[in-house]
Amino acid sequence: MSRPILIVFLLVLVGGTVRSQEPGADLGDRVRKLFIDKCAECHGPRLRRAKGRFGYVDDLEKVVKSYVKKGDPRESELWWYLTGEPELMPPEKKGGPLSTDELAVVWWWIAAGAPTSSTPPAVKTAPASKPLVGPFHVVLVHFPIALVLAALLAEVLYLVSGSAGLRTAAALCLGLGAASGVLAGYSGWVLAEACTEAEVADHRWTGVATVCLTVLAWGCLAASRRGKQRWATLLYRLLLLAAAILVGISGHLGGVIVHGADHLPL
What we know:
This protein has 266 residues and is mainly α. The chain has two domains: 27-112, no CATH class; 134-259. The protein is 66% helix and 0% strand. It has ten helices and no strands. It has helices spanning 3-20, 27-43, 60-67, 77-83, 100-111, 137-140, 142-161, 164-192, 197-227, 230-259. α7 (142-161) runs antiparallel to α10. The longest helix has 31 residues, at 197-227.
């Protein structure tokens, strides 16, 4: 028995349960939430280049217009993307395919005429208590980027020349870089609440790692200057180098979010 036919048979068994749950619940809202949870990683509205040029998974009206024949799931292109072989959507590596219960919701939604709801998409927004913090992220990030790189340059020049002034400059830049990095990281975390995890995950966690490495490097530098511990000096330099590399990577990933993956003409 082919998968689509088997699924239709199973839907007969679970369909009554799906239709009887929460009599006042709107099928459109349930389907929209399902699509956002399961499909937004590849087809979300915030993606620069959505797969298959399908980037409006949260807009049921567009989905219905493009992929649904109202009242007839088996004649709907959407249904065959979700159940047909050889490639099921969403793919297994993206958390798919949909379970039988989830497919039942989609089936009965189409069978009911694919109603859409006036309820807006469930998009996260920044907390109302911190409305002014997030937007400053794009300004604040320039400080840790410049200061951490300046600290690394000053430390390299100190190793070459032995000038005590350069070591002081490295310490000052690193301290300010760590402080501004914490502020930039916090504002970025708040700003990311308005985005999906798939959009910001790489930038978010490289940014967090950069802040942690910068603070640790500054702590090791302070320890080496107080006790003149060689291990602390070596660890400080390694952490500073790692932080400088990561701050560049994180900055690039942030640029990809804002300007798109092709913003650098390489």
